[in-house]
């Protein structure tokens, strides 16, 4: 007896085909970068298409370990990113809980003011920020790299919305269980908000890791560069005819933590990006 | 075991007065049900006793302590919520033990109390599970268990059965009634379901629009509703209300003309005033070939143990009657009905109920 398969509707087939094409379009540059990183830079000067041919080599990665400032930039990036992520999550949780659960005078007004921050692009405040940190003589410090990123209204908005969605009755039950306000926050409400915190943490981590503009302005000394600024500085000329393999090896190395993060927290990354898209 | 005393309680939400000058006394160990439709203020009243809602004015005492200024955790009450309100990330045992840990009870005592509550509620096998892994009925039992372990002076239940299916609701009703007998604690139970109120309460407080309409034992409320609202809210099918055309005193009661029919009532007529309405429960309206009322049957509901007949009188008024389970009455039949004069009520122009003299009606 012949088996029957249920045909997918045409719209679904078109959707799948579109996704495949888009995925390939996204993948090609990444595969190209990885390929270039395993090629001898001189060979690439002669023929950029050499990327499609053997031999491949690990020499770029070996050079990287010896000559590049990548280790320092990676350390700087990690310090800035991890600190920013932890602080943004902490501040957003506290502020979000306050807006969601504590009835204080002017709450709605303050919340609106915070939300208005969502409408202000980073580029609009970059000059005042630069002047401020310059006046305080804080450029080329970790504080300067970290502090501006903490004023993130998105996190406050996200956590407020999430805390509001947690049934009030659960906290009321805890009140009847004689729990203090802090204990309710710490032991009841906060654990229930872990999915939102994870989403916010990943969103902040990605944003901070990839941030380029502010570190470019604030960190002018190579030892304070973050990865993005450092990699850009390594680029010696506009079409990078020399040292291409070496540069690409740096790019791969710099991108690895993101890749690992994505593999482990795929679900939350998708949610974070979707959340960012609909905000 | 403590009683509760509410004195001149007021609750306003902005300009809206949800509860006005309400006073109520609950005896130690009593099972009281607050009964009323949605928005009548019964849950607000319960939440004020719990401390989850501040009173605008008035006093609340539990036992001999004034509590209206105390936080919820210090009032000696435990509450079971409509949606259970269990802590989703904690196990059943942790849910039950959380309140005890907060007041510094030692681990061994907490464990013993959890075990005891789990035994009473048959939750022993579920102690390590999370609420998300339990059925609705099991969650409800955990919520009750969380209340029991604290050995509170007063148990408060906020419509705890409304999320359960009909079978489970009936079973849980019995379980809560048993629990009350076993613990002997004061319990207040809020519901809009008059069957829950009738089956569990020792005392029912019927509420409407933030006011108490009547306080009484279940059968007292059923037999002698103090207002037309109470009469209409308690009882399924609801009480029949018929506009009285003419009323003539006769002996201890009166003779009423109603849509051309002549009906006897044992309600004394001395205090009656305004537009009068006759109230009669369906079970007091029976088929009788010699009955004085003629009516046409337009719906027949067969419930097994009885049959409910929805009929229409000649003047268009509706009258619900009851017949035996094996009733032969069919849709469209014209039947003769008789009303028991001792089970009639008359509601005056202000909606106040008047009933036959007590000794007569209770025969």
From TrEMBL, chain A:
<dbReference type="GO" id="GO:0005886">
    <property type="term" value="C:plasma membrane"/>
</dbReference>
<dbReference type="InterPro" id="IPR000515">
    <property type="entry name" value="MetI-like"/>
</dbReference>
<feature type="transmembrane region" description="Helical">
    <location>
        <begin position="184"/>
        <end position="206"/>
    </location>
</feature>
<dbReference type="InterPro" id="IPR035906">
    <property type="entry name" value="MetI-like_sf"/>
</dbReference>
<keyword id="KW-1003">Cell membrane</keyword>
<feature type="domain" description="ABC transmembrane type-1">
    <location>
        <begin position="74"/>
        <end position="265"/>
    </location>
</feature>
<feature type="transmembrane region" description="Helical">
    <location>
        <begin position="142"/>
        <end position="163"/>
    </location>
</feature>
<feature type="transmembrane region" description="Helical">
    <location>
        <begin position="14"/>
        <end position="38"/>
    </location>
</feature>
<keyword id="KW-0472">Membrane</keyword>
<dbReference type="Pfam" id="PF00528">
    <property type="entry name" value="BPD_transp_1"/>
</dbReference>
<keyword id="KW-0812">Transmembrane</keyword>
<keyword id="KW-0997">Cell inner membrane</keyword>
<comment type="similarity">
    <text>Belongs to the binding-protein-dependent transport system permease family.</text>
</comment>
<feature type="transmembrane region" description="Helical">
    <location>
        <begin position="73"/>
        <end position="97"/>
    </location>
</feature>
<protein>
    <recommendedName>
        <fullName>sn-glycerol-3-phosphate transport system permease protein UgpE</fullName>
    </recommendedName>
</protein>
<feature type="transmembrane region" description="Helical">
    <location>
        <begin position="244"/>
        <end position="265"/>
    </location>
</feature>
<comment type="function">
    <text>Part of the ABC transporter complex UgpBAEC involved in sn-glycerol-3-phosphate (G3P) import. Probably responsible for the translocation of the substrate across the membrane.</text>
</comment>
<comment type="subunit">
    <text>The complex is composed of two ATP-binding proteins (UgpC), two transmembrane proteins (UgpA and UgpE) and a solute-binding protein (UgpB).</text>
</comment>
<keyword id="KW-1133">Transmembrane helix</keyword>
<keyword id="KW-0813">Transport</keyword>
<feature type="transmembrane region" description="Helical">
    <location>
        <begin position="109"/>
        <end position="130"/>
    </location>
</feature>
<dbReference type="GO" id="GO:0055085">
    <property type="term" value="P:transmembrane transport"/>
</dbReference>
From TrEMBL, chain B:
<dbReference type="GO" id="GO:0055052">
    <property type="term" value="C:ATP-binding cassette (ABC) transporter complex, substrate-binding subunit-containing"/>
</dbReference>
<comment type="similarity">
    <text>Belongs to the ABC transporter superfamily.</text>
</comment>
<keyword id="KW-0813">Transport</keyword>
<dbReference type="GO" id="GO:0005524">
    <property type="term" value="F:ATP binding"/>
</dbReference>
<keyword id="KW-0547">Nucleotide-binding</keyword>
<keyword id="KW-0067">ATP-binding</keyword>
<dbReference type="InterPro" id="IPR015855">
    <property type="entry name" value="ABC_transpr_MalK-like"/>
</dbReference>
<feature type="domain" description="ABC transporter">
    <location>
        <begin position="4"/>
        <end position="234"/>
    </location>
</feature>
<dbReference type="Pfam" id="PF00005">
    <property type="entry name" value="ABC_tran"/>
</dbReference>
<protein>
    <submittedName>
        <fullName>ABC transporter ATP-binding protein</fullName>
    </submittedName>
</protein>
<dbReference type="InterPro" id="IPR027417">
    <property type="entry name" value="P-loop_NTPase"/>
</dbReference>
<dbReference type="InterPro" id="IPR017871">
    <property type="entry name" value="ABC_transporter-like_CS"/>
</dbReference>
<dbReference type="InterPro" id="IPR047641">
    <property type="entry name" value="ABC_transpr_MalK/UgpC-like"/>
</dbReference>
<dbReference type="GO" id="GO:1990060">
    <property type="term" value="C:maltose transport complex"/>
</dbReference>
<dbReference type="InterPro" id="IPR013611">
    <property type="entry name" value="Transp-assoc_OB_typ2"/>
</dbReference>
<dbReference type="GO" id="GO:0016887">
    <property type="term" value="F:ATP hydrolysis activity"/>
</dbReference>
<dbReference type="InterPro" id="IPR003593">
    <property type="entry name" value="AAA+_ATPase"/>
</dbReference>
<dbReference type="InterPro" id="IPR003439">
    <property type="entry name" value="ABC_transporter-like_ATP-bd"/>
</dbReference>
<dbReference type="Pfam" id="PF08402">
    <property type="entry name" value="TOBE_2"/>
</dbReference>
<dbReference type="GO" id="GO:0015423">
    <property type="term" value="F:ABC-type maltose transporter activity"/>
</dbReference>
<dbReference type="InterPro" id="IPR008995">
    <property type="entry name" value="Mo/tungstate-bd_C_term_dom"/>
</dbReference>
<dbReference type="InterPro" id="IPR012340">
    <property type="entry name" value="NA-bd_OB-fold"/>
</dbReference>
């Amino acid at each position: 007896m012949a088996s029957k398969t249920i045909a997918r509707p045409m719209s679904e087939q078109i959707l799948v085909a579109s996704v495949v094409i888009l995925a390939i379009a996204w993948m090609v540059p990444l595969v190209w970068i990885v390929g270039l990183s395993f090629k001898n830079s001189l060979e690439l000067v002669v023929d950029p298409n050499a990327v499609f041919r053997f031999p491949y080599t690990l020499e770029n990665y070996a050079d990287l370990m010896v000559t590049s400032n990548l280790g320092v930039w990676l350390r700087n990036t990690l310090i800035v990113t991890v600190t920013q992520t932890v602080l943004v999550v902490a501040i957003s949780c506290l502020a979000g809980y306050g807006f969601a659960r504590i009835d204080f005078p002017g709450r709605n007004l303050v919340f609106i003011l915070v939300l208005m921050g969502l409408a202000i692009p980073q580029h609009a405040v970059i000059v005042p920020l630069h002047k401020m940190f310059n006046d305080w003589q804080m450029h080329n410090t970790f504080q300067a790299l970290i502090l501006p990123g903490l004023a993130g209204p998105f996190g406050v908005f996200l956590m407020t919305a999430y805390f509001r969605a947690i049934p009030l009755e659960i906290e009321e039950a805890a009140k009847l269980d004689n729990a203090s306000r802090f204990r309710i926050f710490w032991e009841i409400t906060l654990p229930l908000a872990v999915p939102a915190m994870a989403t916010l943490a990943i969103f902040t981590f990605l944003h901070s890791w990839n941030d380029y503009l502010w570190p470019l302005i604030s960190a002018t000394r190579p030892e304070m560069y973050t990865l993005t600024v450092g990699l850009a500085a390594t680029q010696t000329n506009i079409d990078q005819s020399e040292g291409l393999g070496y540069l690409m090896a740096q790019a791969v190395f710099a991108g690895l933590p993101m890749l690992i993060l994505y593999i482990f927290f795929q679900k939350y990354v998708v949610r974070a990006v979707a959340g960012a898209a609909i905000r | 075991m403590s009683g509760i005393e509410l004195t001149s309680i007021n609750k306003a939400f902005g300009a809206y007065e949800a509860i006005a000058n309400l006073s109520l006394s609950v005896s130690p160990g009593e099972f009281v049900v607050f009964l009323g439709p949605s928005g009548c203020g019964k849950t607000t009243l319960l939440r004020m006793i719990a401390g989850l809602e501040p009173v605008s004015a008035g006093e609340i005492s539990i036992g001999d302590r004034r509590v209206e200024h105390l936080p919820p955790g210090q009032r000696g009450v435990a509450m079971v919520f409509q949606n259970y309100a269990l802590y989703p990330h904690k196990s059943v045992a942790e849910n039950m033990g959380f309140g005890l840990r907060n007041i510094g009870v030692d681990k061994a005592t907490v464990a013993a109390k959890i075990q005891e509550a789990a035994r009473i509620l048959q939750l022993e096998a579920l102690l390590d599970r999370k609420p998300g892994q339990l059925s609705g009925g099991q969650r409800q039992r955990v919520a009750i268990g969380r209340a029991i372990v604290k050995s509170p002076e007063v148990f408060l239940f906020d419509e705890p059965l409304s999320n359960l299916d009909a079978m489970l609701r009936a079973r849980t009703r019995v379980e809560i009634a048993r629990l009350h007998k076993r613990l002997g604690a004061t319990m207040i139970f809020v519901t809009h379901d008059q069957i829950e109120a009738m089956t569990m309460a020792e005392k029912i407080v019927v509420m409407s629009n933030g006011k108490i309409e009547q306080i009484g034992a279940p059968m007292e409320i059923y037999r002698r509703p103090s207002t037309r609202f109470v009469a209409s809210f308690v009882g399924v099918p609801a009480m029949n209300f018929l506009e009285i055309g003419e009323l003539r005193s006769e002996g201890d009661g009166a003779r009423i003309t109603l849509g051309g029919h002549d009906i006897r009532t044992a309600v004394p007529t001395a205090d009656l005033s305004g537009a009068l309405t006759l109230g009669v429960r369906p079970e007091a309206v029976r088929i009788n070939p010699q009955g004085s009322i003629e009516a046409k049957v337009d719906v027949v509901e067969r419930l097994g143990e009885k049959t409910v007949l929805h009929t229409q009188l000649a003047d268009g008024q509706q009258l619900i009657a009851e017949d035996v389970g094996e009733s032969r009455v069919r849709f469209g039949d014209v039947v003769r009905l008789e009303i028991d004069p001792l089970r009639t009520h008359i509601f005056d122009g202000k909606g106040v109920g008047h009933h036959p003299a007590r000794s007569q009606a209770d025969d």
